Amino acid sequence: MFDAPVILVDQDGRLLGGSYKGARFLMKPLDLAMDSLAGDALGCRNACLSGGCGKTSCCSGCVIRNTIRKTYETGEPVNHIPAELIQGTPDLFRKLNLLVSTRQAGPAIILRIEPVVGVGDEMNPLIA
Q1: Non-local CB neighbours of 83 within 8 Å, separated by 6+ positions
Q2: Where are the beta strands (DSSP E) in 6-127?
Q3: Do 38 and 68 form a contact (C-beta atoms < 8 A)?
Q4: Looking at residue 74, what DSSP letter applies?
C-alpha cells in the first residue's frame, strides 16, 4: 500500500494523516490538510462549489468518496478502481487519471492513490 501516495481518512473522507508520498501528492504539508475533507485536500474543483466537498451534485458519482464509503460500510478492501480527479476551479483545472484502493484500519480507511500517466498527460499545467 505504501509505495504510492497514501492518506488516512475517516468515514466521512476527512483527512487524518498520510505518508510522505501522500503529502507530496497533496502538494501541501499534512498538518495543513489535516481534518479537511478529501475533496478539499486533493484540490477537487467541485469542492469549491456552493455547499463544498460532499454537497454538490457531482459528489454522488465521486469514485474516491464512494470507494471510501464502501470500505467503511462493508470492511471489504477495494483495489485499483479507475477514477478521475479534476483539480483546480471550474474555470481553471486539470484532469488526473488515478487508480484508487482502500483498506480498513480500525475506524479509519487507508486510501491509496496511484496516478496513471498516459502519453501527453504527464501532470499537465492547469488548463481552461
Answers
A1: 63, 64, 67, 97, 98, 99, 100
A2: 6-9, 15-18, 78-88, 93-105, 108-115
A3: yes
A4: H
Say how many CA atoms lie within 13 Å of 96 toward its Cβ: 21
The CATH number that domain 6-115 falls under is: 3.30.450.20
Q: What is the DSSP letter of 91?
A: S
Number of CB atoms found within 10 A of residue 35's CB: 11
pLDDT block averages, 10 residues each, the chain of length 128: 84 92 90 92 87 82 92 96 89 91 95 78 44
Sign (positive/negative) of CA torsion 84, 86, 90, 92? negative
Nearest to 99 by CA among 119, 76, 79: 79
Residues belonging to the chain = 128
Helix (H, G, I), strand (E, B) or coil at 6: strand
Question: Cell numbers of 94, please?
Answer: 486539470
Largest CA distance in the chain: 41
The whole-angstrom separation of Cα 37 and Cα 92 is 21
